[in-house]
Amino acid sequence: MEKAAIILAGGQGKRMKSNKPKVLCNVLGEPILEWELKACESSDINNICIVKGYHGEMLDEYLKKRKSASDICSVLQSERLGTGHAVMQARDYIKKFLGGDILVLNGDLPFIDKETIEASYKLHKEGGCAVTVLTAILDDAANYGRIIRDQTGISGIVEKKDCTLQQLEIKEINAGCYWFDAADLLYALGELKNDNAQNEYYLTDCIEILISKGKKADAYASRDAVTAMGANDRKELLELNDIARKAVISKHLENGIEFTCTDGVVIEKDVVIGKGTVIDCNVSLRSGTVIGEDCHIGSGCVLSNTKVGNGVSLNYVQAYDAVIDEKATIGPFVHIRPNSHIMNGVKIGDFVEVKNSTVGECTSVSHLTYIGDSDVGANVNFGCGVVTVNYNGKEKFRCEIEDNAFIGCNTNIVAPVHIGKGAYTAAGSTITGDVPDDALAIERGETIIKEGYAHKKLWERTEKYEKNKKHE
Questions:
Q1: Measuring CA to CA, which residue among 133, 294, 149, 99 is closest to residue 227?
Q2: Which one of 367, 418, 455, 471 is the catalytic residue?
Q3: Ordered domains of the chain (ranges, CATH)
Q4: Which of 9, 111, 284, 356 has its CB surrounded by the most CB atoms within 10 Å?
């Protein structure tokens, strides 16, 4: 039986105070919408319709950039007249799946998951239901709609604004997720009225409409109350992020990862970490990052889409779209920029930047150095203050530095330059030509001394200082 999903993403989310749709606000580095799309896709729901509204063009742009095998389309809800009205905009889409089932989701449910979707669908099919509602049990039901149960399932959902005092005491709430038989959903949408406190078309009224027609309605109670959690403002969005962050850390703890302190630790959900690795406080591990075993990821590290081998030690390192091989030691205050490959046993010290370069095995880059657009061999030593000058204002060029070379302090290597195996550059040199194997390159300007120059400059600075002081 074919399945499809409709995600209601037309709300503005005014209390979020954002210039983008609420569903594009991030939870643990991913838009809320992306969490829902992945949950649907993992449940073999590959036909998805997004009901857009506020800044719908942003949603379309996001969906265009998204890599997915799913068939995803969007429809516009030009007026905000309730959840039922939102689903009405997808009538033509629903007609494509007559004989099948439609999952309807509120657009702010990042914690809906494969297990919950599949378990509720199983109940829906086995019970021969026209509609099955996902519910949760909350101690504080707050503003959620209350579930009204009877002996055969449920008899309806009452929005908080329309609840009696007795109904307000109910703790089972509507989680904002529904399975509908497609034909029954189309029928119920045609019968919806807006005679309620908000003059809106409530999707929840479809349940009473179908029951009155003799159809069966049931509810699947989620095992975890967080399934129903959404966000209406920044405070609630932060709470969602905290829940997601702690859940990911808990998973890694179970897998043998050591955390010295979880303060400021943010690990996005697809990050992979090998056993025996230690994570210090104030670490951000972003999507696409894979860390090997027995590593030490020290304070201040930010890794994004970066592969880290076994036994690596990082301290205050920011690395983006990079590869760091085994037993490298890097930091503090190091920036590894995209398309860089740091090979086995490399040592990189403080205030070093590597960009679009390969740094060969056991090479040492101790401090205050920039390596850009370069191919560096094995066992090369960089002195303090070395710069590969890769850009002439119009084009970028590469440098090649072969195995066992020694680059003296404050050397400028003006690309394109080839430095041979075992070659040396003298401290303070500006290298503009190739250096043969085993050679020493000395390229310094002639020293010119102008007597009395410094005294004159000092007098000028002193006179200026005294004038400024008088004006004060």
A1: 133
A2: 367
A3: 3-228 (3.90.550.10), 250-441 (2.160.10.10)
A4: 9
